[in-house]
Amino acid sequence: xxxxxxxxxxxxxxxxxxxxxxxxxxxxxxxxASIRDETRKRVLDAIAELGYRPNMAARALATKRTGRIGVxxxxxxxxxxxxxLRAVEVAARAAGYAVSSVAIGVGEEISPxxxxxxxxxxxxxxxxxVAPRSSSITALRKIAIPVPVLVVKPDDxxxxxxxxxxxQGGAVLAVDHLVSLGHRDVLHLAGPLDWFDARARERxxxxxxxxxxxxxxxxxxxxxxxxxxxxxxxxxxxxxxxTAIFVGNDSMAIGLxxxxxxxxxxxxxxxxxxxxxxVPLARHVTPPLTTVHQSFDAxxxxxxxxLRAAIEGRGIPGATRIPAELIVRQSTAPxxxxxx
Length: 340
What we know:
Elements: H1 11-18, H2 22-29, H3 37-50, H4 56-63, E1 68-74, H5 79-94, E2 98-104, H6 112-120, E3 126-130, H7 134-141, E4 149-152, E5 161-165, H8 167-181, E6 185-190, H9 196-212, E7 215-216, E8 220-221, H10 226-234, E9 244-247, H11 250-263, E10 272-277, E11 290-293, H12 296-311, E12 320-322, E13 325-327
Parallel strand pairs: 1-2, 1-3, 3-4, 4-5, 5-12, 6-7, 6-8, 6-9, 9-10, 10-11
Antiparallel strand pairs: 11-13
Helix pairs in contact: 1-2, 1-3, 5-12, 8-9, 10-11
């Protein structure tokens, strides 16, 4: 029997379409390990064809789970945390989970422990923490959290599950690209070093620079904003000796290019610029920005896959890093005259 009009399909109709019992459909929905791959596929195909949506309240009663993932997100105005939260929401919805989120950070009165209390009081099955500052993670270590916790950070953690975008690999791609063009004197304009991602990019930059034997300069530490980098560029009295800058994020890279152009320097003729993030605006600035692309969609899927495994008592995937990709545009070129 196929549902018609506004009638919502039910689990027995899915079972009939798939040629299985309604208990088998239930086991597929709960990701039971005993279901054969062929049977699982038939059931999932029937679910997709009929547009079936499980009754989450009934499922919660049967499984003692709420079907909800909590997300603590810090610095939600920044591109990375915002994109991560959105990707987790999309992946969770596709997996049949709802998401509740609480924002912490500058301007927010709620602390990391308060955010966890808020979410666990809602009966979440697991927590994802998008808190890029080390101080926030330190605060969470001091409290007992009754559900599985995953932290989005570039290094393994002794307390929490982890997953991340490959910050180190992205920095290596940026340095290798500049070296391949002939640059041997590269400055790093970093993000705030109390951020895990900024610190990972900075360390990888210096390690790769030493491997190539290029000149190592003291880094400049920024605040992620275009205004900081714009002021830095505008404050230069003359063209610097270094021929390229690896910038910790695209916002600063865009501000830097703006400042250089107003200062009368040509990008990439006088100086090459590489960013990090591949924000949507990066392809539309002048010149279009060479940058490191991060797949937040893949990150969100990994977060949900790992948390589902923890919730359901299955084997937890090992530490996962989502590969980065270098997007080459017009903000980088060989140094003029082979370098200064």
